[in-house]
Write a structure and sequence with these properties.
Blueprint (H helix, E strand, L loop, with lengths): L4 E3 L2 E3 L12 E5 L6 E6 L3 H16 L7 H17 L1 H12 L3 H24 L2 H5 L1 E8 L14 E12 L2 E5 L5 H14 L3 E5 L6 H12 L7 E3 L8 H6 L6 E5 L2 H12 L5 E4 L4 E5 L5 H13 L9 E7 L3 H13 L10 H16 L3 E4 L19 E4 L6 H4 L6 E7 L2 H9 L3 E2 L1 E5 L3 H7 L7 E4 L14 E2 L2 E2 L4 H8 E9 L1
Parallel strand pairs: 7-8, 7-10, 8-9, 10-11, 12-13, 12-18, 13-16, 15-16, 18-19
Antiparallel strand pairs: 1-2, 3-4, 5-6, 6-22, 11-21, 14-15, 17-20
Helix pairs in contact: 2-4, 2-7, 3-4, 4-6, 6-16, 10-11
Bound molecules: nicotinamide-adenine-dinucleotide.
Organism: Streptomyces solicavernae
GO molecular function, one term: oxidoreductase activity
Family: Belongs to the aldehyde dehydrogenase family.
Length: about 500
């Protein structure tokens, strides 16, 4: 699979970008063994301009005239198209990310299909119609008197109705950890709402986005409704796209620092942003919890995809009476984990290992891991790190404050519910949290007090796509999911008719 730009319904061969500005290609590196597997084209400014222009043209053409039912049917054809090539998508996702194939087959690709079906269902379920409200009757103030001034306050009989209009050209920029899932999480509602999209996936995981472009082409979407450009972010395709003067809205998932950079560029054109950013997610384990379930859930929440999911737990707070038992059980599970994948890149592996070194320097107690595994085969040239469990660090340690995005969590004890909440909320991030308790009242009391966008009780990463998803504080701006996404990707227009 050779990733390629897709603009106005056409794939551009490498080096054949408009204006000849495909300034080169990047190596596509296999994180499992460090081998170069292919090349990723880099879009220069003119390529990004061409993609934005193609999207703009699509809005003026047949795509701009589609009704909700037609778009819903198109989303279903896309979902069916991914499903028909399921194994190909799974292979490409596993190869780019290094994640276990089973994870791609049970999470990434099914969820990508689900994203398209969920928004098709919403359209068929009348989401768009229910958005169109009407208010007949008396309308107060500013009705005009017919005397020529047209500004005097008063009352007049009017019919007000509100329709939803797509925002226009939407830029979607996504990260490498769940490449197709997170891309389609934004592309599906953006298309459902009638926008035209220019997407830029992570330069580290370009393959499934390219397959998606093939599927969208085969699904018969009008040319330019969906466009794809590849390349890096800062000073490259990502920045060119998100600071583009003809982009009407930005939907971004990635690091908080990148959100800051994108917002600066967007400010010049007052382009609205929806941001899903980093996290430093806490788990609160109360002594009354089903401890086996809490350990099991924390193994999943800390180590799935080697901790490279924004929702992963990096801070665990455990009520003191069960602290030792919990730490021993979690440590044992971490030490015996097998089949886990690598970090996405050498740079990211080095970042995670720098935190492991910091833990040693700060005299953390290393319960499990803390180093680099040795396999005795090609994987030793890849970017693996050991699943790691730490204790003994103070709350203000960088290890408890900064997002590491690796297979590592720190476990600390607490004595009271108030203390647990204070520790959980002592973070610049507020993406997700997990509460483990068998006390129903405590669950309902504690969960809403955690300063996070998503709080799970006795589970982790159980998702209903209709619910709001997003982060507080430095973890994001806005909410996506269900009608929350449709709210972002279109704007209300009120029409007032004097009757
Ligand atoms: P990243 O911010 O480095 O890159 C994300 C995307 O932004 C990539 O496509 C990249 O090329 C692009 N980009 C980078 N700099 C840019 C710039 N200046 N202008 C425009 N585009 C730019 O993030 P990453 O390393 O790919 O992903 C990991 C981060 O994403 C973590 O912080 C993680 O928590 C976060 N994340 C958040 C969620 C969520 O839903 N909140 C989900 C997944 C990942």
């Amino acid at each position: 699979m050779n990733p390629a730009h897709y603009i106005g319904g056409t794939f551009l061969p490498h080096g054949d970008a408009p204006g000849g500005d495909a300034t080169g290609t990047l190596p596509l590196i296999d994180p499992v063994d460090g081998a170069v597997r292919g090349r990723v084209p880099e879009a220069g400014r003119e390529t990004v301009d061409a993609a934005v222009a193609a999207a703009r043209a699509a809005l003026a053409g047949p795509w701009g005239r589609t009704c909700a039912e037609e778009r819903g049917a198109a989303l279903r054809r896309i979902a069916d198209g991914i499903e028909a090539r399921f194994e190909e998508f799974v292979d490409a996702e596993a190869a780019d990310t290094g994640k276990p194939r089973e994870l791609a087959a049970t999470v990434d690709i099914p969820r990508a299909i689900g994203n398209f079906r969920a928004y098709a269902d919403l359209l068929y379920g009348g989401a768009e119609r229910s958005y169109s409200t009407s208010v007949p009757g008396w309308s107060a103030a500013g009705t005009g008197t017919g005397t020529g001034t047209g500004v005097s306050a008063g009352f007049g009989r009017a019919l007000n109705y509100t329709v939803r209009r797509p925002l226009g050209v939407v830029a979607v920029v996504s990260p490498w950890n769940l490449p197709l899932l997170l891309l389609t999480w934004k592309v599906a509602p953006a298309l459902a709402a009638g926008n035209a999209v220019v997407a830029k996936p992570s330069e580290e995981t370009p393959s499934t986005a390219t397959l998606l472009a093939e599927v969208i082409g085969a699904a018969g979407l009008p040319d330019g409704a969906f466009n794809l450009v590849h390349g890096r972010g800062a000073g490259a395709a990502g920045e060119y796209l998100t600071s583009h003067c003809d982009v009407d809205a930005i939907a971004f998932t990635g690091a908080s620092a990148t959100g800051t950079a994108i917002m600066r560029g967007a400010a010049d054109h007052l382009t609205p942003v929806s941001f899903e950013l980093g996290g430093k997610n806490a788990a609160l384990v109360f002594a009354d919890a089903d401890l086996a379930a809490a350990v099991d859930g924390t193994v999943r929440s800390a180590f799935t995809h080697s901790g490279q999911i924004c929702l992963c737990t990096e801070r665990v707070y455990v009520e003191r009476p069960v602290f030792d038992e919990f730490v021993a059980a979690l440590g044992e599970r971490a030490r015996t984990l097998t089949g886990y994948g690598p970090m996405i890149s050498a740079a990211h592996r080095d970042k995670v290992l720098a935190y492991y070194r910091l833990a040693a320097e700060e005299n953390a107690q290393v319960i499990a891991g803390g180093g680099v595994p040795r396999f005795g085969d090609a994987r030793d040239r890849g970017f693996h790190v050991e699943p790691t469990v730490l204790t003994g660090l103070p709350q203000d340690s960088r290890l408890l404050q900064e997002e590491i995005f690796g297979p590592v969590c720190h476990v600390a004890p607490f004595d009271t519910e108030e203390e647990a909440l204070r520790l959980a909320n002592d973070s610049r991030y507020g993406l997700a949290a997990t509460v483990w308790t068998s006390d129903l009242s405590r669950a309902h009391r504690v969960a809403p007090q955690v300063a996070a966008g998503v709080v799970w009780v006795n589970c982790w990463n159980l998702r209903d796509l209709r619910t709001p998803f997003g982060g507080s504080k430095d973890s994001g701006i806005g909410r996506e999911g269900g009608t929350y996404s449709l709210d972002y990707f279109c704007e209300p227009v009120n029409v007032c008719v004097q009757i």
